[in-house]
């Protein structure tokens, strides 16, 4: 591994991952504080209702949103490398226009579906209106253009700050709600305010960075005019949108589906287990966020980006094994201290899901490598097959084995995801000589 660290690209990935890690560690700890206060400050039923409402809003945004940050990285990063500022502005204008359009559709769709889903989600009339309130957060959840801009500019330090601000505000609000016994309304309002302010901060950072670099009018929304100047734009955004929608069905909707099948209390337990899973899987997520922009600067026809992906996967897998061992040792007392004895059943779910942490960490480079190779459709097909199988298993296992069945299904879903993406990744590597290294849709002249 000493040789690995002499690779400048590998060092850049780890450096940017470290920036993000500083924010994500704080985010994970503060998130646990917020969940702890909510779990102790409300009954298990009310805690489950709050979790379901928040999960519903996030699920709707994940279903509708375009992965505009990936579009900015895929098309904007090479443009910046060539100092083609006009093309970069076309990319961000098109991306911003998509964010606005998808946010409007998402908020209207989320509110329109609530009357038909509220009973299945276990929401009464009062909870229904709280869910409507949370739907107004959806536009801020669907916008990812500022994230892409900051990644293209290599400003992972600002992303790290933003990642810590939202959970910090949520933790402060939760502590106040718990200390002053504000109950369910206090937690709802404080979590809402934290999400709103945290989402707005990303836009402020991106705008300030554009101004600092003297790039003006980059956030003037333009859908069709800008798209005509970017060959392959619509194909890329629709393919990644469908892939992310399928991902949302497998991940963001998991808590909602558990709530529908088993009720809000079970959804609350599953949410706690998922929180620990997300926290322990943070290293792979951080490496992915820094890995994708870095390999977009490399020639996909060479072995370098593929070897970089293999090294990153092995490193992440080793970290995953270490994290899983730590969770086995400290998970149970940690849940007891943070959430209380009434939520100890969540530790049983965590034990089942630990294998999924290692699997997901090892497989994290595959999506970025396929996008680099222009094989986003192959990734979409792989996601579709894996996610359809997972949803079927989740519903069936939840019915048959309760909330533990949902945990087994989640582990199986992660395995299917990684294995289904491995085949097109290996195929793209074998045929890498036919790949093109240029700004997508732009000639080399």
Helix content: over 70%
Strand content: under 5%
Order of helices and strands: HHHHHHHHHHHHHHHHHHH
Whole-angstrom Rg:
21 Å
* Main beta sheet strand tally, sense and closure: none
Spans of at least 5 consecutive residues whose pLDDT stays below 50 are 439-445
What is the number of helical segments per DSSP (H or I, 4+ residues)?
A: 19
Secondary structure tally: strands: 0
This entry's quaternary arrangement is single chain
What structural class is derived from the secondary structure elements?
A: mainly alpha
Q: Determine the N-to-C terminus distance.
A: 39 Å
**Total discrete domains:** 1
Membrane topology: Multi-pass membrane protein
Main location: membrane
Protein name: Lipopolysaccharide biosynthesis protein
Subcellular location: Cell membrane
Can you describe this structure?
- It is built from 19 helices and no strands.
- Helices cover 81% and strands 0% of the residues.
- It has one domain (4-432).
- The protein is mainly alpha-helical.
- Residues 439-445 have low confidence and may be disordered.
Summed up:
The protein is an all-alpha fold and 445 residues long. Helix content is 81%, strand content 0%. The protein has one domain.
Give the SSE layout.
Layout: H1 8-41, H2 44-64, H3 68-81, H4 85-117, H5 125-135, H6 138-142, H7 145-152, H8 156-179, H9 183-212, H10 224-228, H11 233-250, H12 252-262, H13 264-280, H14 282-295, H15 304-338, H16 345-362, H17 365-372, H18 376-401, H19 403-430
């Amino acid at each position: 591994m000493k040789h690995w660290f002499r690779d400048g690209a590998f060092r850049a990935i780890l450096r940017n991952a470290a920036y993000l890690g500083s924010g994500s560690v704080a985010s994970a700890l503060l998130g646990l504080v917020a969940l702890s206060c909510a779990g102790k400050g409300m009954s298990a039923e009310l805690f489950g209702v709050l979790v379901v409402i928040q999960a519903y809003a996030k699920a709707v945004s994940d279903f509708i949103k375009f992965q505009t940050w990936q579009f900015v990285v895929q098309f904007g990063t090479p443009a910046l490398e060539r100092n083609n500022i006009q093309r970069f502005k076309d990319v961000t204008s098109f991306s911003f226009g998509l964010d606005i359009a998808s946010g409007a559709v998402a908020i209207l769709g989320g509110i329109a579906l609530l009357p038909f889903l509220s009973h299945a989600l276990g929401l009464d009339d009062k909870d229904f209106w709280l869910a409507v309130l949370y739907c107004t957060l959806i536009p801020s959840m669907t916008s990812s253009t500022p994230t892409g801009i900051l990644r293209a500019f290599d400003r992972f330090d600002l992303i790290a700050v933003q990642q810590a601000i939202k959970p910090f505000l949520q933790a402060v609000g939760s502590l106040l709600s718990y200390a002053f016994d504000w109950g369910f309304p206090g937690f709802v309002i404080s979590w809402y305010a934290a999400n709103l302010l945290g989402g707005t901060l990303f836009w402020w950072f991106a705008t300030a960075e554009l101004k600092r670099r003297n790039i003006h009018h980059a956030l003037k929304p333009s859908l069709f005019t800008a798209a005509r100047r970017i060959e392959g734009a619509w194909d890329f955004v629709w393919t990644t949108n469908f892939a992310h929608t399928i991902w949302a069905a497998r991940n963001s909707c998991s808590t909602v589906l558990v709530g529908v099948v088993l009720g809000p209390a079970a959804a609350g337990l599953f949410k706690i287990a998922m929180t620990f899973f997300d926290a322990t899987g943070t290293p792979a997520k951080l490496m992915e966020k820094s890995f994708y922009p870095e390999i977009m600067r490399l020639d996909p026809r060479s072995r370098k980006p593929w070897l970089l992906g293999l090294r990153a996967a092995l490193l992440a897998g080793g970290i995953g094994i270490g994290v899983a061992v730590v969770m086995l040792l400290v998970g149970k007392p940690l849940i007891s201290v943070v959430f209380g004895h009434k939520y100890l059943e969540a530790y049983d779910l965590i034990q089942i899901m630990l294998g999924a942490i290692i699997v997901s960490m090892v497989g994290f480079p595959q999506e970025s490598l396929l996008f680099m190779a222009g094989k986003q459709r192959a990734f979409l097909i792989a996601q579709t097959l894996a996610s359809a199988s997972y949803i079927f298993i989740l519903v069936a296992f939840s019915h048959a084995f309760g909330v533990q069945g949902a945990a087994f299904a989640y582990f199986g879903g992660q395995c299917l995801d990684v294995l289904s993406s491995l085949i097109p990744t290996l195929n793209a590597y074998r045929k890498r000589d036919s790949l093109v290294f240029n700004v997508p849709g732009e000639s080399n002249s």
